[in-house]
Amino acid sequence: MKSLKDMRSLVERAVSENNPLAPDIEKIINCYAKLLRRFDKIVSLSDSYQSQLRELNMRLELMAHTDPLTGINNRGYFMELLCAELNRSKRHERVFSVLMLDLDRFKSLNDNYGHAAGDEALRTLPRVIQASELRTSDFSGRIGGEEFAIALPETGIHGAYEVAERIRANLEKTAVILDGKEYFMTASIGVSEYRAGDTEDTLLQRADQAMYRAKETGRNRVCLSDSG
Amino acid sequence: MEPIYIKATISSPEINFEPDNNVLRITGESYPENSFDFYAPVISWLKTSLQELPELTLDIAVTYMNSSSTKCTFDIMDILEDAHWRGVKTSIIWRYDRENERSYEMAEDFREEVLFPFEIEALDT
Q1: Which CATH number do you get for residue A108?
Q2: Residue A44 structural domain
Q3: Given a cut of 50, is residue A228 above it in pLDDT?
Q4: Residue A51's closest chain B neighbor by CA?
Q5: Are B113 and A53 an interchain contact pair (Cβ–Cβ within 8 Å)?
Q6: Model confidence over A112-127: pLDDT tens digits?
Q7: Are residues A59 and A94 in the same domain?
Q8: CB contact under 8 A, A51 and B102
Q9: Which of A27, A101, B32, B77 lies 20 to 30 Å from A89, alpha-carbon distance?
Q10: How far is A49 from chain B (nearest CA, A)?
Q11: Do residue A48 and residue B106 have CB atoms under 8 angstroms apart?
């Protein structure tokens, strides 16, 4: 396609040669210029609409993965990530562990202080988790009302125990303001390590059982799954 | 002259002419399989009507258009512009999405193409 500059020089040449068609040539070149401008505009507007769509898509995807209250992964997305990690560990014979965390006495907190307070408490645990120096490959999710899970790739049960203990200690020290007063929450944590033959469910179940044992033996503690 | 009406589909806007105030409304999203086929009856109705009507306002609230719809929209605007120069009172009300900053800028891009009255208003007004 000729550039507009080339086309305009055609007009200049026609004028200087006293070509009787010069005014017609100029009309055509002006139409050409207008068409070129219009073409560029259609393309750029179309790009804008497409960017809009992409942004909307990203937001929708995020919403589909996110727990609205806490902003962390919802159960569905956590399970997807867990499934991928399970397959990876199976394929490459890697080690990884999961933690199940349950806020202690959450029901009575809700009953005594109301649901707004309960929501604030639920938002606090993910913040403590974030501040507990997890690696970028670690991921968490809210998988029940007051139940959270964390997956720790490349981590055996003892390393996972240290992470769990760190979170437990940080949570115990973190004050939530409820009714103008400082309230310190605790969590019971169960730890299990992936072993051959595990599905997402069996792995989480063992961590869950360990967490229940933590509750039964006094709360605000970490228990390892007996069977690893 | 029959007022034009085309029902909206998931990928094409509603086209509705209100004879009481000579307003042609285009509402919805525009990404039909073939925009040229979709807009052809609108364009031919417009050309005929502008021979008879003293005035026409295009009220357009389309939140998304594919590139061929964008082209057809410009074609429609060109027809309105031609009628304007013939003495028909043409105008456009372009409705943009307040939640989307780019939406207003794009309305301004469309406005640059015409010399007759072009108002930009928010979608919910």
Answers
A1: 3.30.70.270
A2: 4-65
A3: no
A4: B102
A5: no
A6: 888 888 999 999 999 9
A7: no
A8: yes
A9: A101
A10: 6
A11: yes
Can you name the residues that pair with B26 across neighbouring β-strands?
Answer: B15, B60
| pLDDT at residue B68 is higher than 80 | yes
| Superfamily holding B5-122 | STAS domain (3.30.750.24)
Name the nearest CA neighbour of A191 among A210, A169, A214: A210
Q: How far is CA B34 from CA A83, A99, B31, B38, in A?
A: 42, 54, 8, 6
Residue A192 tokens, joined:
């299990």
| ipTM (interface predicted TM) | 0.88
Q: Which of residues 59-78 of B touch A (CB under 8 A)?
A: 64-67, 70-71, 74
Whether B89 and chain A come into contact, CB under 8 Å, resolves to no
The tokens 């125990």 sit on which residue? A161
Yes or no, beta carbons of A46 and B70 under 8 Å apart: yes
A79 domain residue, yes or no: yes
CA angle centred on A173, ends A171 and A179, rounded to 5°: 90
CA-wise closest residue to A160 among A203, A205, A220, A97:
A97
Q: Which amino acid is at A63?
A: M
Buried b / exposed e over A7-18, threshold 16 CB at 10 Å, is beebbeebeeee
Sheet harboring A222-224: ordered strands across? A139-142, A147-153, A96-103, A187-193, A222-224
A70 occurs within a structural domain: no
Does one domain contain both A30 and A132?
Answer: no
At B84, list the tokens.
Answer: 């304007």
pTM of the model: 0.71
Find where tokens 């009575």 sit. A108
Q: How confident is the model at residue A1 (pLDDT cuts 50, 70, 90)?
A: low
